[in-house]
Amino acid sequence: MLAMLGRQQGLLRSRLTPVALLGIVLEPAVILATLIGVAWWHGEELTAPYVILALIVFSLSFPGASRLGDRYRKIARGVVIDWALLAALLLLLGYASGYLEIFPQEMILDWLWLTPVALVAAHGTARLLLTRASASGDFRKTAVIVGINETGLRLARQLSARPHLGVRLAGFFDDRSRDRLSVLLEGEELLGTLGKLAAYARQHHVDLIYISLPMASQPRILQLLDDLRDTTASIYFAPDIFITDLIQGRMDNVGDMPVVAVCDSPFSGVDGIIKRGSDIVLSLAILLLAAPLMLAIAIGVKLSSPGPVLFRQRRYGEDGREIVVYKFRSMTVCEDGPGIAQATRGDQRVTRLGAVLRRTSLDELPQFINVLQGRMSIVGPRPHAVAHNELYRKLIRGYMVRHKVKPGITGLAQVSGYRGETETVEKMQKRIEYDLEYLRHWSLSLDLWIIAKTVLVVLRDRNAY
């Protein structure tokens, strides 16, 4: 039994392909090459301090982010944000240790601005060369997909959108007739039934076979695998579990037993430490800088209308547990009951000062205290009142998944046009979709991009009232 489980685990282990290896080493190599080139340009010898700096840079940048499948705009954004983080850390360490004074200031400045330019150029060049190389017959592989369904069609689109992978999709195999599949085919080639696949694979030298049949078709899949033993094709299984909204889907192990994560928090392990550390550092800095402004707002709220300075409201936090969230009071009421009406344009409950605070989001400054308490994050799904949660969890599928992480002061939905009132279920649905998208693709650079864009949105947006 243990031998069988070990064999299964080996079958499910990830494989590092040449393209994936290139994605891992490209950025560290370019950063080091730029450092060496700039040092040479400034007439510097590669002495021990440069070797130590190179080792530090490599350890902090390896493994690099694989961006070969991204659009050029996303590549540029990711490179700039990631390099800004790394450069800020290097400068901080260099200043604190005095190590920065060893290097000429002009050389450091040239390295700082040339590196992101070189990284963007390297990613673009690598993608272009890979695409051209994969177009040649020497590197191109032929693939077929078994099963015309949502999973198979999505897989076909992924292959088409990534020409650098060097995979040519010959078509599909399915036991259903072309007439029954005409709606799904979308111009794709139907090559035959499952019984003809093995012969086709041998005759046309098929390299890759992707099986996208539903898991309920186990007998057909086992028969198909038995038929394919007489071919040299590599076989992959894309089960229909992957058409669900996976949150941090990945392979994991419980002892020797492989399992698939379908819905998990992105902030486990080291990522959780990084997320919490960035929250503490940024919230402390913001509170220190905003302390005079917060004091002035507190005085203004107290003088503008009767009631407390801070409005405390129960919200759902991480794992659906109730938390208390702080805001500067912007209304004449402090509602926190089973039925709460969202603020609307011209709402009579909003005070004159409160209207300014809500429009500029200054009423949410006390939530940085919630961040320090560990109840919230700076970036994450915005918390809703408990009454609103109980309403929308019944109306919107997957609504409560957003509570797998701490709520945020700002979020991807808020910088994507869904800030302020959500007067329809459709608008709330879109907000939830962005929240789940954030959970799927979280990174520290994404957090920093959302924070920067939040400032622009607050200055321009008029949806909050």
How large, in whole angstroms, is the Cα Rg? 27 Å
Distance between the termini: 63 Å
Order of helices and strands: HHHHHEHEHEHEHEEEHEEHHEHEHH
How helical, in percent, are the residues? 40-55%
Task: Walk me through the structure.
The protein is of the alpha/beta class. It folds into three domains: 134 residues, no CATH class; 121 residues, Rossmann fold; 191 residues, no CATH class. The protein contains 15 helices and eleven strands. A five-stranded parallel β-sheet has the order 3-2-1-4-5, covered by helices on one side. It has a two-stranded antiparallel sheet with strand order 6-7. Strands 8-9 form a two-stranded antiparallel ribbon. Helix 6 links the parallel strand 1 and strand 2. Helix 4 crosses helix 15. It is flat, with a radius of gyration of 27 Å. It starts with a helix and ends in a 5-residue tail after the last helix.
